[in-house]
Amino acid sequence: MSDPVEILLVGCGRMGTGHLQAIRGLPGLGGVVAGVDPSQAAREHVQREFGVERTYADLDEALAAEEAPAVFVCSPNNLHATYALKALAAGRHVFVEKPLALNMADVDRMIAEAGQRGLLLMAGQSLRFFTHIRYIKALIDAGEIGRVRHIVHRRMSPGRGGDEQSWFARQALSGGILPGIGTHSLDAILWWLGEQAESVYAMVQNIDPHPEVDIEDEVSLVATTPSGALINVAFSFHHSLGYEWSVAGTEGTIQLSGTQGVLKLNGEVSEVPERVELPGEHSIQREFLSAIAEGRPLAQASARDIRATMALVFAAQESGRTGQKVEVAHG
Q1: Residue 46 and residue 157: Cα distance in Å, rounded?
Q2: Are 192 and 244 contained in the same domain?
Q3: Does the residue 250 lie in any domain?
Q4: What is the residue-wise DSSP string for 194-234?
Q5: Which range of residues forms the domain containing residue 223?
Q6: Any residues with CB less than 8 A from the CB of 157 and at least 6 apart, and which?
C-alpha cells in the first residue's frame, strides 16, 4: 500500500474545511499537511480546529516550501484558474472546487497545462458521487425509461451562499448563480444523458440589485442536445421551492425530490441502493486521492470531462446578455 497523499489546502474557509473534514475520514489515502489563505483568522482556525500546523498567506511561498503532490483549490471562484495554473506549473495534481473557472479560455488553459504535464485536474462536481444521482444515471444507462426526451429541474432556495458582504454576492468574484450552483445541476444532467449541449436560450437576471449585491441570481433556461433531448432548468437564490428533478423517456419517467430524497420510477417509489457501482470511487475526495495513488486517470469529474458543462454555463450567460439563442461551443 502506498503512503497517504500529502495535500496542500488552498482556501481555508467553509469549502476548504469541508474538504478537510472529509479527508480526515480517509487517513490511509491522504492528509492535509499545510494550508494557504490570506486571512490570518482562517489560517488560525485550521491550525486550532484541525491540527494543520503549517500555514501560509501566499500560494507561491507555500509551493516553494511544501513538496505535497496534491493541491485542493477552495478559494473564491475568480481565483480558481490563477491558483490551479500555479499549482500545475509547480508539478502538482490539482482538485478545483466548482466552477473550474469563470471563462472558457481559462478552462482550456488549465486543461492544456494539466495534459502537457501529465497531471490530474479534477473539478468539484460532487453530485456525481451522490447515491441518488448515481442511481438515476444507472437507470438511464440500463434503458429503464428508454430514450430520454426531456429533463425538467429546479433548484430554488433563498440565500446566496453567504451574507451579502461575502465575495459570493459579487458577480466579478463568484460569476453568479450559473457558475456558482448551476454547474452542479447542469453537470449531473449532461452526465445522465452522456451528451454535450448543442444550444441554449436563457433568461438571466439580478432581480434585487443594490450596490453591495450585483450577482446574477435568477435563471431560466432551455437547452438542446444532439439526440433531441430537451433540458429545462430554473435556478433561484430567492424562492423556497427546493430541488426537483424529472426525467421523461420514451418508456417511462424518473422523479427525484431533493438530491437524496424520494425517488420514483414510473410513478412508484423506488428503493435506492446503498451503493451504486459506477466507474470510480464513491466519494469525490476518495476518487481524486485514489487516482493519484494508483497512477491512473480520473474515472469521474476530470476537467476535460467537465469542459462540456462549463461550455453550457458560459453559453447560457451569453444568451442571458444577448437575449438570443446561443450555440454551445465545444473544442
Answers
A1: 30
A2: yes
A3: yes
A4: T----EEEEEEE-SS-BTTB----EEEEEEE-TT--EEEEE
A5: 127-267+309-327
A6: 236, 237, 239, 240, 241, 242, 243
Q: What is the average pLDDT across 168-195?
A: 94
Same domain, 320 and 181: yes
Q: Look at residue 212 in the predicted model and tell me its pLDDT.
A: 75
Specify the CATH number for the domain of residue 323: 3.30.360.10
Q: Is residue 276 part of a domain?
A: no
Q: Same domain, yes or no, for 98 and 87?
A: yes
Strands 326-327 and 263-265: unpaired
pTM: 0.95
Judge whether residue 62 has pLDDT over 90.
yes
Domain containing residue 55: CATH number: 3.40.50.720
CA angle 136–138–141, rounded 5-degree value: 110
**pLDDT tens per residue across span 210-263:** 777 888 999 999 999 999 999 999 999 988 889 999 999 999 999 999 999 999
- pLDDT, residue 209, reads 72
Strand pairing category for 93-96 and 70-73: parallel
Mean pLDDT, the chain, as a whole number?
Answer: 95
Helix intervals (H) in the chain = 14-24, 40-50, 59-65, 80-89, 104-117, 131-141, 171-174, 177, 183-193, 284-294, 303-322
When pLDDT is averaged across residues 316-320 and rounded to a whole number, the result is 98
Are residues 116 and 132 located together in one domain of the fold?
no
> Between the CA of residue 239 and those of 160, 235, 243, 255, what are the distances in Å?
11, 9, 11, 21
pLDDT surpasses 80 at 63 = yes
Distances (CA, A) of 124 to 161, 215, 280, 290, 312: 16, 21, 14, 15, 17
Q: What is the number of domains present in the chain?
A: 2
Residue 212, number of CB atoms within 10 A of its CB: 11
